[in-house]
Amino acid sequence: MGPAPAGEGEVAPLSPAPSQPPPGAPLSDWRPPRPGWGRLLPGAEAALPLGERGAGRAATRPLSPEPPRAPSDFSKAMSQAGTSQFQEVIRQELEYSMEVELDKILATAPQNEVEHTKKDLDGFKKLFHRFLQEKGPSVDWGKIQRPPEDSIQPYEKIKDRGLPVNITSVLNKLVVVKLNGGLGTSMGCKGPKSLIGVRNENTFLDLTVQQIEHLNKTYNTDVHLVLMNSFNTDEDTKKILQKYSHSRVKIYTFNQSRYPRINKESLLPIAKDVSYSGENTEAWYPPGHGDIYSSFYNSGLLDTLIGEGKEYIFVSNIDNLGATVDLYILNHLMNPPNGKRCEFVMEVTNKTRADVKGGTLTQYENKLRLVEIAQVPKAHVDEFKSVSKFKIFNTNNLWISLSAIKRLQEQNAIDMEIIVNPKTLDGGLNVIQLETAVGAAVKSFENSLGINVPRSRFLPVKTTSDLLLVMSNLYSLNAGSLTMSEKREFPTVPLVKLGSSFTKVQDYLRRFESIPDMLELDHLTVSGDVTFGKNVSLKGTVIIIANHGDRIDIPPGAVLENKIVSGNLRILDH
């Protein structure tokens, strides 16, 4: 006698999925079997936001907790997939598995964090969905064209139009946004990179506040500063903001999203709960500065600023000391010559051989598009790096309309390519991070424009080699802004390469009794155990190499001009 049928109101047990599709059944209705699993119903419910599942969803749940997928299962299935239908089945399985894990993580959130965590995980889910849909490079190389001449304007042409008639009025419509999510770990520092001292004990953040305060005092205006922090930098940054409470700058902060890192093999999150401690310390990451649009909107700050009459944001990396408010560009935004305002302006500058990997503006399907090296098919990477063909790169100094951001966010119309960033954690686990870049949204805005600006507007400090340049007499500091010294006879910046002994800021500072005179320097390479005494002068090309086990002490007052110093030179106190 067979089992009795389920009574009214009861749920029939889920039957195991067959190992292959039933004869005549469409492949799209079939799911690969998994031990202890019920058959998954087809459909697009995996695309719904977390917590918004339709009736009957429970019928798709496994009877027992979801087992972790064996690392090779998906990769084998994908490599053996013979049809697009089968690949779609695998993608749906991956999305479902991810959704189950995200639900488990969301369930661990404290009540006061549920709403915020849910927004983050929903954003991640959308990104993961797109990641599974993409196949190969995201650009068709044959469609890439040079931008039309009028789509990238030379800065000189913008400058020729002059300053705004009413500087105070246009500045009152501007907000400065600094990307402040990064740590100083690449320079051996703990905490936010923005808190590293770069000039006369002033930090990146100090200089930023000084610049804006100078604007506000000079023009009797009210330019706000907004910091986009990450969960890595928010607490330390907020503590330090107290020191600016009496400055003439109104400072706001908001946090970019927090997304779970994905195991490279299983494509499942490595986080077990929402915490950021213990085993979970490495389980989360900030998903790149392209997250600014959604996190800015979700924070409520976007609406607040629009309500105050603000119209544009000037976005830049906080470690780019050349990214200051430019009144000529602002005038072009507010008073365009053709009467049609730009929604998005990207500052680009001419490539040097040091910038060959930088993203470049192109014309793609009748729109300006930022193309990054990661999107380029391997066969065309050398062509992409060509300084003669792709002559400009993105400085990440961006001027964007607030009302346009609001419109596009509400239409879910901001399209940015996904950057897949592989990482190896301290324990050796290989993970991937899905990220986006703020400049990639250029194609989503109307009437976008590139402006080819002087190199002086791109002065990033990524390494101690960069730090040496900005700490030297090559630059003068005035009201938080660094400008090339008038005493330097030519405007190019020297090429400086400091070896691994200088990587950490503490080690770097210990090796210089004072920063050398570099006004006439063209090229400096330092390798090995090298120290510099006071009042050293470097000119032309200087190469200093201390072999392993040797040490070179450059004596106080030394003048090195077009010299190679090698071997062992010790200076000891008598």
From TrEMBL:
It catalyses: alpha-D-glucose 1-phosphate + UTP + H(+) = UDP-alpha-D-glucose + diphosphate. CDD domains: UGPase_euk (cd00897). Pfam families: UDPGP (PF01704). GO terms for biological process: glycogen biosynthetic process; UDP-alpha-D-glucose metabolic process. It is an enzyme of class 2 (transferase). Residues 1-84 are annotated as: Disordered. The keyword NAD does not apply. Keywords: Nucleotidyltransferase, Transferase. This is UTP--glucose-1-phosphate uridylyltransferase.
